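Good morning,

Attaching, inline, the backbone tokens for the sequence recovery test we're adding to the shared suite. The designed sequence is right after.
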């Protein structure tokens, strides 16, 4: 199963160009959802106004090499390794899910656009990456949703309580999980059996929810977070610090009570 391209077998029933149109539709939905979100929340306007204010409050003008160094550090630390999440489980779960998703989506595009026609070359690498990426997403996403989400981890809500904020993570887990089950059932060659078709339909629906739900879900954080991290790091480097005072230069004295509980209340 893991070395077979599930879209190649699917091309027997669904023409490849329909699959390609579906991918294009999903990308369009992401762009539209993000644009409507930006217009509705006015967050990009706030971002640029804030950047202008920070420029005025800057204590020093950054040289090109200083700015480049801040950008490189932001990409390497805040974005590629999501350092905002600190060391530990939260960051590991996020990295697993994030890289799993990137690999899964990239492999889906490559398999559908380059390896699903009848006369395409067979490839082993991309199907393997597709399955590994989906598996990583299911593990990382489930780890986060069942154990680490703030309302379960810190506020003692039961794991089965579902709210609107869970739309993104649940649709992400569902699309990868249904994709994996569909690929497995299809590889069993069940002929007239319906099982694989049910999971194909669930895979399609979960993708529609994931990519069509950008406006209502946390999907767009993957675009906003990098921008916010860059602004924060530039504000620290030029001394504007978002109008916040610098850290106090005195010993940390919080009393012994601070040691009684792990810091996990947000
Ligand atoms: C393909 C890219 C990404 C995927 C698939 C992804 C996935 C996720 C998921 C599933 C969540 C949990 C959402 C929830 O609260 O229910 C999450 C939260 C989060 N993500 Fe991402 N993410 C991506 C990119 C990024 C990037 C680039 C950053 C930072 C620069 C980032 C920072 C965060 C932070 C800070 C949280 C909050 C975590 C928490 O509440 O503990 N993510 N992400």
């Amino acid at each position: 199963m893991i070395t077979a391209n599930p879209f190649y077998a699917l091309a027997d029933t669904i023409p490849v160009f329909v699959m390609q149109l579906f991918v294009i539709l999903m990308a369009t939905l992401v762009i539209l959802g993000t644009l409507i979100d930006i217009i509705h929340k006015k967050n990009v306007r706030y971002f640029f106004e804030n950047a202008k204010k920070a420029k005025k409050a800057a204590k020093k003008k950054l040289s090109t090499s200083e700015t480049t160094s801040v950008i490189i550090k932001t990409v390497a630390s805040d974005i590629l390794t999501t350092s905002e999440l600190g060391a530990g489980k939260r960051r590991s779960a996020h990295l697993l899910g994030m890289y799993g998703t990137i690999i899964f989506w990239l492999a889906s595009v490559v398999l559908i656009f380059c390896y699903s026609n009848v006369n395409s070359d067979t490839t082993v690498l991309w199907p393997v990456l597709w399955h590994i990426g989906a598996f990583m997403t299911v593990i990382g996403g489930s780890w986060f949703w069942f154990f680490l989400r703030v309302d379960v981890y810190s506020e003692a809500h039961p794991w089965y309580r579902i709210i609107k904020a869970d739309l993104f993570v649940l649709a992400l887990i569902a699309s990868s999980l249904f994709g994996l089950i569909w690929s497995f059932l299809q590889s069993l060659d069940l002929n007239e059996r319906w099982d694989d078709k049910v999971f194909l339909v669930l895979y399609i629906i979960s993708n529609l929810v994931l990519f069509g739900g950008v406006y209502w879900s946390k999907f767009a954080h993957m675009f906003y977070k990098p921008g916010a991290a860059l602004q924060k790091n530039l504000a620290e480097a030029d001394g504007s610090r978002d109008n916040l005072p610098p850290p106090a230069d005195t010993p940390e004295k919080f009393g012994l009570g601070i040691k009684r509980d792990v810091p996990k209340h947000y």
